[in-house]
Amino acid sequence: MITITDRGAEKVREFLDSNPQEGDAGLRVGVRGGGCSGFQYVLAFDTKREGDMSFSSHGITVLCDGQSFPYVTGSTIDYVDALTGAGFKVENPNVTAACGCGSSFRVEDEEQVSAV
């Protein structure tokens, strides 16, 4: 399961209200290879696709493709507005290492593969 905080849900609603999407849009959470630690998060506003997992959190639909799900299961999506910038932040319990800038991460399975 993937959840979203109250503040994160508020920001998603603001975006969806100001940029209407066709169909029932939600927040897509995924990963792709890249960055100095191995994976990077991909967040986008999208509609459900075949094979997606779908969760409802604070009235927001959270979507995730099957390949990304093992890497982000249990995560919480928040919206942070700080001196260093504003944007969505993923709190992921699966992360075992992250780069200094926080834009990429590694999970335990990836570390085991790298050690071989």
TrEMBL record:
<protein>
    <submittedName>
        <fullName>Iron-sulfur cluster assembly accessory protein</fullName>
    </submittedName>
</protein>
<dbReference type="InterPro" id="IPR016092">
    <property type="entry name" value="ATAP"/>
</dbReference>
<dbReference type="InterPro" id="IPR035903">
    <property type="entry name" value="HesB-like_dom_sf"/>
</dbReference>
<dbReference type="Pfam" id="PF01521">
    <property type="entry name" value="Fe-S_biosyn"/>
</dbReference>
<dbReference type="InterPro" id="IPR017870">
    <property type="entry name" value="FeS_cluster_insertion_CS"/>
</dbReference>
<dbReference type="InterPro" id="IPR000361">
    <property type="entry name" value="ATAP_core_dom"/>
</dbReference>
<feature type="domain" description="Core">
    <location>
        <begin position="2"/>
        <end position="102"/>
    </location>
</feature>
